[in-house]
Amino acid sequence: MSASLPAFDPADPLGIDDLLSEEDLAVRDTVRRWAADRVLPHIADWYERGELPGIRELARELGGLGALGMSLHGHGCAGASAVQYGLACLELEAADSGIRSLVSVQGSLAMYAIHRFGSEEQREQWLPRMASGEVIGCFGLTEPDHGSDPGNMRTRARREPGGDWVLDGRKMWITNGSVAGVAVVWARTDEGIRGFVVPTDTAGFSAPEIKHKWSLRASVTSELVLDGVRLPADAVLPAVTGLKGPLSCLSHARYGIVWGSMGAARSSFETAVDYARTREQFGRPIGGFQLTQAKLADMAVELHKGVLLAHHLGRRMDAGKLRPEQISFGKLNNVREAIEICRTSRTILGANGISLEYPVMRHATNLESVLTYEGTVEMHQLVLGKALTGIDAFR
């Protein structure tokens, strides 16, 4: 019987690839090759310099791959499955979290908001150019004083006689902000919280870049300043009022993080395995010592459990059955475990683990941001706590 079993594959110990179709594998391999060619040779230098040079060119290339707004349908979007989008996120974050963030914010936040809640005119105006990477988008929700509590945002939109809207306020920690051609900005109105499509060349809009970051350094992060930004009446997203709009966008983006975090974990794990096979101490490779093998085994278990969880959630999303609480489950587990995998990998590499010659510390510091944005650990714990008990403990 054992002779008929497939060989054990250390890269895929659970045989998860058997769950993927030929098209799934083609999407994954295409994105992996692009990242290996266009990101990996340069990412350590970009990270050390705290820059993402050529971001507009990278966006156009990602658009050419169909990776922007990948799971959306129509208006130039690829219409890929949720699993295929997840696989792309995993491969992009295996290169760097900043690259996956570029794609997530573009497709799962800015484009998703316009696609789901926008008018047909807004979709036709923006989505084809965003899908191709011609126009980069950003998503303005978080504020300097209101991160986990967006319901108390201070950014305000008032309606003027004649129908124009005027926006005033600030948004903080906005990926893509300084290079965006369009921003989806959420603001308080007399009707409730509304979303607005804001061309970034509108008078009164500015997006100074945030410097001195020790995480997501190869990513453009900005503040959005809205100082009397005047927009026409049709700039508002017509199909939603209230927090359910931005929160549904965040759920879509969090789903990509469930997959993406496992990419960072995989890169760190594979680095640790390769290092353990070749690094010698006391006359033998350190991979031959029991304590090192215990670390590798534990990392492999958590990594591939996380990929299985992501795959399960992807199938549920494709079937229209994925609930926000289940996305919280995935983000909470996978990002926490990814950080632990990176930290354990660092211990195997010893002092070399802090060097940018290896990706481990870069992934670990990036994941500290991923752990916080689009829902902190505490917020996802409370989402699950409410779902499990029926009691709201947020306040």
UniProtKB/TrEMBL annotation:
Keyword terms: FAD, Flavoprotein, Oxidoreductase, Transit peptide
Cofactor(s) required, per the database record: FAD
Span of domain Acyl-CoA dehydrogenase/oxidase N-terminal: 21-134
InterPro entries named among the record's database cross-references: Acyl-CoA_Oxase/DH_mid-dom, Acyl-CoA_Oxase/DH_mid-dom_sf, AcylCo_DH-like_C, AcylCo_DH/oxidase_C, AcylCoA_DH/ox_N, AcylCoA_DH/ox_N_sf, AcylCoA_DH/oxidase_NM_dom_sf, Glutaryl-CoA_DH_mitochondrial
Domain of life: Bacteria
Domain Acyl-CoA oxidase/dehydrogenase middle: residue ranges: 138-229
Sequence ranges assigned to domain Acyl-CoA dehydrogenase/oxidase C-terminal in this UniProt record: 242-388
The family this protein is said to belong to: Belongs to the acyl-CoA dehydrogenase family.
UniProt-recorded name of the protein: Acyl-CoA dehydrogenase
The organism's taxonomic lineage, starting at the top: Bacteria, Bacillati, Actinomycetota, Actinomycetes, Kitasatosporales
